[in-house]
From TrEMBL:
Keyword Ion transport listed: yes
GO molecular function, one term: ATP binding
Entry superkingdom: Bacteria
Pfam families: ABC_tran, TOBE_2
Keyword Cell membrane listed: yes
Region (Disordered): 137-182
GO cellular component, one term: ATP-binding cassette (ABC) transporter complex
Full protein name: ABC transporter ATP-binding protein
Domain ABC transporter intervals: 4-314
InterPro entries hit by this protein: AAA+_ATPase, ABC_SmlMolc_Importer, ABC_transporter-like_ATP-bd, ABC_transporter-like_CS, ABC_transpr_FbpC, Mo/tungstate-bd_C_term_dom, P-loop_NTPase, Transp-assoc_OB_typ2
PANTHER family (alphabetical): SPERMIDINE/PUTRESCINE IMPORT ATP-BINDING PROTEIN POTA (PTHR42781), SPERMIDINE_PUTRESCINE IMPORT ATP-BINDING PROTEIN POTA (PTHR42781:SF4)
Alphabetic keyword roster: ATP-binding, Cell membrane, Ion transport, Iron, Iron transport, Membrane, Nucleotide-binding, Transport
Length: 435
């Protein structure tokens, strides 16, 4: 049983069923990506898990606790989950530090986080020193002005920490961290968690900034840190990189995945980006029409898709008509070794049919090669088009019968349009029964 167990989940909007008997297991500490086209029910699943939508039937269990089930609908804030939305959705009137700490427990003592110049030893001076309106006023005074110890209250608005003589601002008092006494441990714990997370997401120098002063990537890091702050049992990420430009999206999602794994967080990510799901997740669930069609590792989903639709959704395909003949398929590329991909039986893998039935033959473009791996699995073709992508290209080849196939070829090995080449296949083809 997984750390998160979803069983027979159904969600409907009126008479329209959006999720239909969805079941899913998420192992503890893993990142599971739910991948599917727009409108397939990905976000509905995420919102149901978060408790933001009522369910028609089914159960959701997190860490052995039933959070949704017959007669049970635990409130979202009591589920122990963190939420990272598509846009950062930061509070504009709070600073980065205050946004990060927003979900942490608050008491009168833990609100008194931001210590002012002159606080007596035993406080938390220097941890987030001078982060209040009164603190800013103190720092703005001339050097001759007396400095009184102050404590910021719940309405405090942070300003930049650590500005004093050591940071190059004349006339300001330099603040250094002071030892923590037992009676101040609660507010230290909250403040230290903010400091820890700001450092974790690479924003230690920006805790005083307003959200309007952040880039898109920085804002999304704050959103992630805010969700991580209470140490949730489950992280829910709703296409958190969709609004970013491609270069930033690629860099940030890699960093976020590494951070979640380093923190041993259990995470559920929904996305329609195939590359994102395959490159980040430990496991991928492919959805269509409110159902999960396949669940497995990224390699399983990509190399052993359960049907041609899944294969085409998670990557480029070469699809051909063929005839099954005892572990091989006869098709336009010749007689190829193949794996039978029929529906599995109750006792295990599907048994291959007798020789002769028509099948759908599926290959990945990178399984085709210009080399000659075997004398009986090669065919001549003419290069007709090249879609260049820098590191490699999708090259279109026309076979003798007029059929066009595409192969992924590394840039140094690219042929020229009009070149006659020999195509081979380096991996077993996949054979699917015709619907």
């Amino acid at each position: 049983m997984g750390w998160v167990a979803i069983d027979g989940l159904r969600v409907a909007y009126g008479d329209t069923r959006v999720l239909d008997d969805v079941s899913l297991r998420i192992p503890r500490g893993s990142l599971v990506a739910v991948l599917g086209p727009s409108g397939c029910g990905k976000t509905t699943l995420l919102r149901a898990v978060a408790g933001l939508l009522p369910v028609t039937a089914g159960t959701i269990t997190v860490g052995g606790r039933l959070v949704t089930g017959p007669g049970v609908q635990r409130a979202p804030e009591k589920r122990g989950m963190g939420w990272v939305p598509q846009d950062a959705s930061l509070f504009p009137h709070l600073t980065v530090g205050e946004n990060i700490g927003f979900g942490l427990p608050r008491t009168k003592q833990s609100d008194d986080l931001y210590c002012e110049p002159g606080e007596a030893p035993g406080g938390v001076a220097g941890l987030f020193a001078g982060f209040t309106r009164r603190g800013r006023a103190n720092r703005a005074r001339p050097a001759s002005s007396p400095v009184r110890p102050l404590i910021g209250g719940p309405g405090s608005v942070p300003a930049a920490p650590g500005r004093g003589p050591a940071s190059g601002t004349p006339g300001h008092t330099h603040l250094a961290p002071a030892p923590i006494t037992p009676d101040r441990s609660r507010q230290y714990s909250r403040a230290a968690r903010i400091v820890e997370l700001a450092s974790l997401v690479g924003l230690s120098d920006l805790v005083d900034r307003a959200p309007s002063q952040l880039s898109g990537g920085q804002a999304q890091r704050v959103s992630l840190a805010r969700a991580l702050a209470p140490r949730p049992d489950l992280m829910l990420l709703d296409e958190p990189f969709a609004a970013l430009d491609p270069l930033l999206r690629s860099a940030l999602r890699t960093e976020v995945a590494a951070l979640l794994h380093a923190q041993h967080n259990t995470s559920l990510l929904v996305t329609h980006d195939q590359e994102e799901a395959l490159s980040l997740a430990d496991f991928v669930a492919v959805m269509r029409g409110g159902e999960i069609l396949q669940f497995g590792t990224p390699a399983d989903v990509y190399e052993r898709p359960v049907d041609p639709w899944v294969a085409g959704f998670v990557g480029d395909t070469v699809e051909l008509d063929g005839i099954w003949r005892g572990g091989r398929v006869d098709c336009a590329l010749g007689s190829l070794p193949a794996d039978w991909m029929g529906a599995p039986s109750d006792v295990g893998a599907a048994s291959a049919p007798a020789d002769g039935p028509s099948v759908r033959v599926l290959l990945r473009p990178e399984w085709l090669t210009l080399a000659e791996p075997a004398a009986d699995s090669k065919t001549d073709a003419v290069t007709t088009a090249i879609a260049y992508a820098g590191h490699d290209a999708l090259v279109s080849f026309t076979l003798p019968g007029g059929l066009v196939v595409r192969a992924r070829v590394a840039a140094p090995d690219l042929p020229r349009v009009g070149d006659r080449v020999t195509l081979g296949v380096r991996q077993n083809a996949l054979a699917y029964p015709l619907a």
